[in-house]
Amino acid sequence: MNLKILSNEVQQFINENLASDIHKILLKNSPFSEVTSKELVEQIESKSKSKHKLPTWFATKNIFYPNKINLSQTSSEVAAHYKSSLVQGKTLIDITAGLGIDSFAFSKNINKIIHIEKNEELSAIAQHNFIQLEATKIECISADGICFLKNNSQTFDWIYLDPSRRDKNNNKVYYLSDCEPDVNEHLIFLFTKSNNILIKTGPLLDLNNGLKQLRSVKEIHIVAIGNDVKEVLWLLEKNYSEEPLIKTINFKNENKQTFDFYLNQERSAISTYSIPLAYLYEPNAAILKSGSFEYVGRYYNLKKIHSNSHLYTSDKLISFPGRVFKILNILDYSKKSLKNLDISKANITARNFPDSVEKIRKKLNLKDGGHTYLFFTTNKDQKHIVINCTQIFE
């Protein structure tokens, strides 16, 4: 951690070059004798990325940024703030704390946070930034999280961990057993240190696989931002043996879409099917990740277009956690029928359809964008159709 980066002159250079071509900066000699061009570019890149992801950090003076890889692995402030709403009590230990975005958010609801990060430089960066952020409830310790717990007699109201999803060669891994630390291997021990454990996993982890590997899962929170699933949160409570609640959350601008269910509700739900009616409904990404393909339709009294399309329809307009469209007409999948629309571009979605979006665009010579929305799908009679719509809600 080069503290010379925090000098007024260097900070001014960084702020003035947030929109500059970093390749040009990298190729030039650094204007500062004690700060390299590579270090300047690293700060510029990471600070630029933090503008929307970490607005509090971006707006705070003298924040020291890690490299862009470490920054990309951190939670956004939106996701971190949501996580903080799930915990309460006096003490929380974050045993894979990294830059400390989550620790900072937890400190708003918890009296004492222990920030454990085995990378000494990252731990030092976090500690420095907490001082700038006036986060006085957080204690930073550079250590291996599991080892620290084993060598410490203290218990905590909460344990939080975000297992690393990269192997020793920096390749991405997707199974809990391949992450570091392996939660399943240490879970019995972790429950000797706290009755409550919150685990963050990546969006690609299959929920059923996670439930097979973990025990005492009380809730699963699927968090999407801008209709893009960012993380899955597993809330574990010691000796909990009932069915977990699945909670889906999609943050869209200032709005928050939510939909909750239990797995037995999904298993017992029976869909009804219909041709496309007046309105079309597409669940948001968090719901699609949750696997609630039957219960969501029954809950909102909607009919499915096909068992595998996961598109829904109704005669009456309702509020729905996803995109909502007014259906204009239904077309056959052919150049002739689409030619009659007289359009050169459209927003295309393909669901349960043999051709990809890219292939459809090439075949029909359609550019992306505009106000026309075309859904290429299969109806309940196994016929390939195109649903021409205008969007009402997103």
From TrEMBL:
Residues 279-321 form the PG-1098 ferredoxin-like domain. It comes from the Bacteria. Pfam families: PG_1098_Fer, Thump_like. Residues 322-390 form the THUMP-like domain. Coiled coil: none annotated. Signal peptide: none annotated. InterPro entries: PG_1098_Fer, SAM-dependent_MTases_sf, Thump-like. This is Uncharacterized protein. The lineage of its organism: Bacteria, Pseudomonadati, Bacteroidota, Flavobacteriia, Flavobacteriales.
